[in-house]
Amino acid sequence: MRAVVQRVSEAAVEIDGQRRTHIHTGLLVLLGVEVGDTEEDLEWLCGKIIRLRIFPDEAGVMNLDIHQVHGELLVVSQFTLHASTVKGNRPSYLRAARPEEATPLYLRAKQRLGELLGRPVRSGEFGANMQVSLINDGPVTLIIDSKLRE
Predict the structure, then answer these.
(1) Omega before 139 within 30 of 0, i.e. cis
(2) C-alpha 45, offset from chain centre
(3) Which one is catalytic: 78, 85, 126, 131?
(4) Contact at 8 Å (CB) between 13 and 21?
(5) N or C: which terminus of the chain carries fewer CB neighbours within 10 A?
(6) pLDDT, tens digit, for every residue of 56-110?
(7) Where are the domains of the chain?
(8) Is 18 part of the annotated catalytic residue set?
(9) Is 85 a known active-site residue?
């Protein structure tokens, strides 16, 4: 699993011109499921996201996690995170899990993040054409991959 995590002051998802959900201070997580991802990948990634200390403390140092700032979480499925651009100019998505494999893991990740956060997590709609807007705070953007674990 791969995630792009952005610290935001606000973020929203629109589908068919209708605002579906939004958050204020918190994290926008673009989540991609790769062929062969497991529950272990999911657990590691969700735990890492929740424990990230990327919010500023009173001295302005990135030292606080999402719990400590009472932040919100918005998760959006993003199969293009597993694109390969090695050959040609048209990305290949062969490493991205097919919907029948990816959907249950995406939904389980959303559920697990909510359990770890202790409150509901907002989300986009798996497979939908979404317009995602955000105000990246910092800017702070991290890429986390359960296979690399760096």
Answers:
(1) yes
(2) 10
(3) 78
(4) yes
(5) C
(6) 999 999 999 999 999 999 999 999 898 999 988 999 998 999 999 999 999 999 9
(7) 2-145
(8) no
(9) no
